[in-house]
Design a protein that fits this description.
The protein is mainly beta. It folds into 2 domains: 35 residues, no CATH class; 55 residues, Roll (2,3-Dihydroxybiphenyl 1,2-Dioxygenase, domain 1), CATH 3.10.180.10. It is built from 1 helix and 7 strands; from the N terminus they run ββββαβββ. β6 and β7 form a beta hairpin. The relative contact order is 0.18.
């Protein structure tokens, strides 16, 4: 794991060679009471459309679609049974 010297947040990047494959945010950004967990990200073509479809099909939104400048667009949703995951579209 490595920290980006340009990122003062303390986020740690997990890399496989030169490819980013994950990360660990500082604990100060975890919601109160959140248990330890992994969050899987699924790459999609249209975050807004997928998030909307998930809600139509009985899923829940934990984080509405949002843009991270220079990174991409993402949302955190849960399927109707409560399994939580993120959807993501890279800015690249």
């Amino acid at each position: 794991m490595t920290a980006d010297p340009k990122d003062p947040s303390g986020y740690l990047h997990i890399k496989n060679g030169e490819h980013f494959i994950g990360g660990v945010p500082p604990s100060k950004y975890h919601p109160p009471g959140a248990p330890p967990h992994w969050l899987a990200y699924f790459q999609v073509d249209d975050v807004d459309a997928v998030a909307s479809k998930a809600k139509q099909m009985g899923g829940n939104s934990h984080l509405a679609p949002m843009t991270m400048e220079g990174v991409g667009r993402m949302s955190v949703i849960a399927d109707p049974q409560g399994a939580v995951f993120a959807i993501f579209k890279s800015a690249r």
